[in-house]
Structure formats: structure tokens, C-alpha cells
Amino acid sequence: MFHWTSGTPQADGSRLSYEEAVNDFDVEKFANMVEETGAGYVLFTIGHAESYCPAPLESWERIHPGLTTQRDLIEEMANALNERDIRLVCYINGPLAFEYPKRVEITPELVQNFVANFKEILPELGMRYKDKIAGYWVDTMILKIPFDEFFHAAKVGNK
Hints:
alpha/beta
């Protein structure tokens, strides 16, 4: 698991903007490093803490304007890993429903917003990447959500 977020510093301790960090991400070096470990899959964070996404997803941009990137790091990473018989699992967190790090009361409206956001994002991920993504780790499942709706949204484009 790689918990790579908007707050992740560079090797020298400096910080780049999220867009710059995505642009500087060396996919081949990363994929080679993972391959050396013998791993069969990678769990990689997209959208944790601050709700940045390392890809130009339209649904994500509608929900979180300005927090997507031009480079599609998800596709490049999936392609590089799949060439090495390593599967990519995308970790997606709950701030897609609220502003991090603001503490919020779990209300029916918040849960409804959370579900609506994921029902837009998961089908776009599925249609865009098809079987390049092996699955999703959806965090913040402390919310009482309609599992069937999530299940069906997560299966679009890749059963």
C-alpha cells in the first residue's frame, strides 16, 4: 500500500503542488521498485485527505473543482504495473463527501452526498480504465450507506 497524498513530501523534504508532484512522478521507477518486491498488487491512494485526484476525471472535477490533474497518473500506473503482472487497486477516501479536515456530524444529507459523489465517480473510473483497475478500497465506511448502490456503481465497466 502506498499512501501518496497531496501532503506527501519529496525525497528531499520539499513540497510541490499536487499537479507538480503528479507530473514529476516516475511511473517506471515506481513500477520497477514494486516488481522487485514480488508484490502481486498495489493499493494506491487517489483522493485522500484533501480530495485531489491524479487524473483528469470529469466527475471528480465537478465535485471538487481544481483538484484534478491533466496527467492521467492512474492510467499510466495501471499500464506500467499490468505490464509486470501487478494489479492496481485504487484507495478512495470519504472526504469526497465533506471538507477535510473539518469534523462533521454524520447526517442523512452527508451520507446522501457521499453516495451521490461515489455513484458519479466509480462508473467513470470503471468506464475509463475498464479492467486496468483490479478494484477499489473505499474508506470511511463508518457511514451507513446503501451497499447495493455502491456495489453496482463499482462494477460499471469492469465486472
